[in-house]
Specification:
The structure is a single chain. By secondary structure, the protein is α+β, with helices and mostly antiparallel strands. It has 3 helices and 4 strands; from the N terminus they run αβββαβα. A 4-stranded mixed β-sheet has the order 2-1-3-4.
């Protein structure tokens, strides 16, 4: 995920919580550190789709407090 994670962090700078992207290859924090943490699990292509603001279409799984995952699913990401 290397360079893509840096870009994902920029896309998710408006995240209301700390986002940790987790692919089968490993975990990387993306975006700002903001209180509660939510881990988003998925394939790298799905995590990229999520980071680009397509949360509803990305096939990912969330791990974290219910209110935090709900807020993350509707956060305005993207360009």
């Amino acid at each position: 995920m290397g360079a893509a994670v840096g870009g994902a962090g920029l896309l998710m700078r408006s995240a209301p919580v700390t986002v940790v992207l987790a692919s089968p290859a490993g975990r990387v924090r993306a975006g700002p550190v903001a209180g509660e943490s939510v881990t988003v699990h998925g394939m790298p292509s799905e995590l990229l789709m999520f980071a680009c603001g397509r949360q509803g279409q990305a096939e990912v799984r969330y791990e974290g407090p219910e209110w935090a995952t709900a807020a993350l699913q509707v956060a305005p990401f993207g360009v």
